Q: What sequence folds into this?
């Protein structure tokens, strides 16, 4: 490759994405769902970590509920037609992960109270 970024004669251009990435019907669904799962776990964790490092405990506790603003990203992706399917499955991943975490926490707390009380 030359300094200007153009390929030289003996270099081959990069191959196009395989059919799996272009047109497989479940690709956007799987990637969207697991992106939602990761999103609902990683974003609040990073946000809480940054607040804890940069602010006092009281200020961090007061500002933590603003993490809900992060849901604007998948909601905004519902608008363009090109990202709509991905965003639908991303929101499904976010909601189902939150439901599973909430149900598990409720069951564990109930079991702890029932066994201890």
A:
């Amino acid at each position: 490759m030359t300094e200007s970024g153009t390929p030289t004669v003996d270099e081959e251009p990069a191959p196009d994405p395989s059919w799996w990435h272009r047109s497989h019907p479940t690709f956007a669904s799987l990637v969207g769902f697991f992106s939602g799962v990761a999103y609902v776990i990683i974003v609040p964790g990073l946000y809480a970590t940054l607040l804890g490092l940069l602010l006092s405990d009281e200020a961090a506790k007061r500002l933590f509920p603003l993490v809900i603003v992060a849901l604007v990203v998948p909601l905004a992706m519902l608008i363009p037609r090109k990202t709509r399917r991905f965003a639908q499955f991303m929101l499904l991943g976010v909601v189902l992960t939150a439901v599973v975490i909430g149900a598990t926490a409720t069951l564990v707390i109930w079991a702890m109270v029932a066994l201890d009380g």
